[in-house]
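Notes continue from the previous slide.

Worked example: a multi-chain complex. Inputs as given:
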Amino acid sequence: MLNLVRSGAEGGEFVPPSAKDFELPPIFGDNAFTTKPIFLVFFSVIVISVFFIASSRKAAVVPSKLQFAGESIYSFVRNDLARDVIGHEFLRFVPYLFTLFTFILVNNLFGIIPLIQFPAMSHVGFAYVLALFTFFVFHYVGIKKQGAFKYIKEIMFMPGVPKAAYILITPLEILTFFLVRPLTLSLRLFANMFAGHLLLLVFILGGEHLAQGAIGLKLISPLAFGIGIVLTFFEFMVQCLQAYIFTLLTALYIAGALADEH
Amino acid sequence: MTDNRANKRDENALWTIFGYLLSGLLFWGGVGWALDKWLGTTYCTLIGLLVGMGGALYLVWLRFGRE
């Protein structure tokens, strides 16, 4: 079982976890589209759908526990993220923000759920795609609202600045809006998930390796496992926070695109 | 609620500032680096980085410091 997940750990020598541990082999033959992260992403969609359909199917005035859980998450995204940030036009963005939040959250949480234990977002490709969606959404919203010309002009030329200064700052505005924003959005999520998973690997695989060593090392092993468990709870916090921050920044970018002036 | 909203504004300011600083260094540093390559000099990258930093700080001031 371990061989399936981790190659090169045989032979007694401790192989420190590295980026190689994120390249899982295809499950069916050589097809690169059947790796674990891809199945996890599909699985997360099923989990989310089943959960929210089940929690809203028998909606009642006095909610059941399940309905309460579902509604808490929904109202958190709707009120705390969408309404507070975007303002009076928030309602049409709730579906997107809600999907984004639950999708990222569940995929992140897969990183610490026993037997699954792999955050799909630790592959940068998934994070890129999500950031690309947000990128298109907030630019589309801005262009639709203000017209393409005015929207671009608004980004490029901040009012009330001496003309000569535009040479200095206009490239920076363009770079920030069209490259740095989506890039930081995706890299923040990816790097947090990647580093978190690596950290857990270090302590848990290290603990396992120590347990197979000499008697002195065996005594340290529980300590490594203990730290691994503490870090798992820490990871839980990071995973929730990253899902929140991705959604929050998406909402902020949409709010910025909707505003008439920055 | 107001506290909550102020937190989100801070979050926005934080990442906007970070983005400006990053693009300042990338763009003007990149321009300086390209000039160095082209002219065979060594100091343009440094000047570019400084100009980028200055431009980014100016932009931060324009956006957040003027009120």
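Summary box: Residues 1-5 of chain A have pLDDT under 50 and may be disordered. The interface with chain B takes residues 80, 84-85, 158, 160-161, 165, 168-169, 171-173, 175-176, 179-181, 184, 245, 248-249, 252, 262 of chain A (CB under 8 Å).
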